[in-house]
Amino acid sequence: MRNLVLLFACLLAALPGTSGEIRWEPYQDLAVQQLQRYLQINTTNPPGSELLAARFFQEWFAAEGIPAEIFEFAPGRANLVARLRGDGSRRPLILLSHMDVVSSDPGRWRVHPFSGALVAGDIYGRGALDTKGLGLLQAMTFVMLKREGVPLRRDVIFVATADEEVHVRGADWLAENQRALLAEAEYVLNEGGDNLLEDGTINFFGIDTAEKAPFWLRVRARGRPGHGSRPLRDSAPHRLARALARVVDWETPIKVLPGVEKFFHDLAPQEPPERGEKFRHIREAVHDPEFLATLTRDEAYNYLLRNTVSLTVLQGSQQTNVIPGEAVAHLDVRLLPREDPQEFLQQLRVVLADDTLEVGPVQDTFRVANSSGTDTELFRTIQAVLGEHFPRGLVTTRMLSGWTECQIFRQLGCTCYGFSPFLVTREEIAGVHGDNERVSVENVRRGLRVYFEVVERMVR
Ligand SMILES: [Zn+2]
Fold first, then answer.
1. Which residues surround ligand 1, an ion (CB under 5 A)?
2. CA of 147 to the centre of ligand 1 (A)
3. Fewer beta carbons within 10 Å, N or C terminal of the chain?
4. pLDDT beyond 50 at 112
5. If you average pLDDT over every residue of the chain, what do you get?
6. Residue 182 C-alpha to ligand 1 middle, in angstroms?
7. Where are the domains of the chain?
8. pLDDT tens digits for range 266-313
9. Would you identify the CATH topology of the domain 213-361?
10. What is the edge-to-edge ordering of all strands in the sheet holding 118-119?
11. What is the pTM of this model?
């Protein structure tokens, strides 16, 4: 009987056109090598220089017989788009990543941030997790679909953007100048969704289906300047400090969105029984002040339930003995999907309780936060593939506290998810925008299989 099962399994694996016959080893080796090369390209933004990375992809794809177009929208700043044609029976799938990375301080790193060095099983480099590691797996998946001759029922479009980390000019340019191409797509797979590994086990895979909207504000107080030795009760810094004290203690209203409700519900079985019950009925549970206080104290849960305010910038005098005529603070406000920024501003003014303060946005444009539903073929496919590779890993939705280019693609009508095939520890996550950013070779090798299988099932 056992032999029969084995024989059957072998026969299945040998069927033409299933991923069972793929020889993974050479592809996995290539993925590691190419990631090292990609990480060696310095795309620190500013200035970005993403054209260099775009050429890296263009040359690689050309060698594989895949044409790719570079759009240089400003000197040295470029997006790249490449497409594998399908039979058109389904709308396209976009594989999206950004090529720019944030700055790094080489003095604080174990190896140089642009070395792509392989040390003790880890590949080091700025962008290894955010988000060159993902971009490379997408490119590798793309190349594999071509080499393996996978018949495609939908186009697969590889999109690598510039300037995501600063002004998002790359994706904005595409949305404006290649709108038809992007809007044609049914699905977009993008960065996001980190999967936390604790004590060697995975608690859950979070697929980002929603994110919050930055609404950065500047609060300015003006007053009479003077000598620090003679305090002025209503000086600019004093008035600002009083108002800010009210804001930092402000507990904004609780709002349980459907995706967040599902997240808590999914997590319930992993909690102790009593807390699990609360998680299962989060909408009612937030009315329990004690329970709500525990959520509010937990930075991983608090932001899911409300608009948030972080006091980040404080500016006053340059000298200790000088009372300045002006004092300024910046508030990093993050709004839940579909919130009205003007309404929030009104609430904030009430809390500041000082009509003499000037309050206004730091940025010119506000991008309304949005979300994608989970009742889709792509969500079910990711769930199925993860279930096969990690039978005990829970797959759930997560709302990102930050912002990604998904917001732009959702506005064009695509279903967009943040999905990462990497399992990462807290220490590895700290490398994102921090020091010693790295991804393990094991993650790259296993991640390629997971990612390819998701994409292949969506397009075959
Ligand atoms: Zn990123």
1. 130-131, 191
2. 29
3. N
4. yes
5. 94
6. 19
7. 22-211+369-459, 213-361
8. 999 989 999 999 999 999 999 999 999 999 999 989 999 999 999 999
9. Alpha-Beta Plaits (3.30.70)
10. 118-119, 122-124, 438-440
11. 0.88
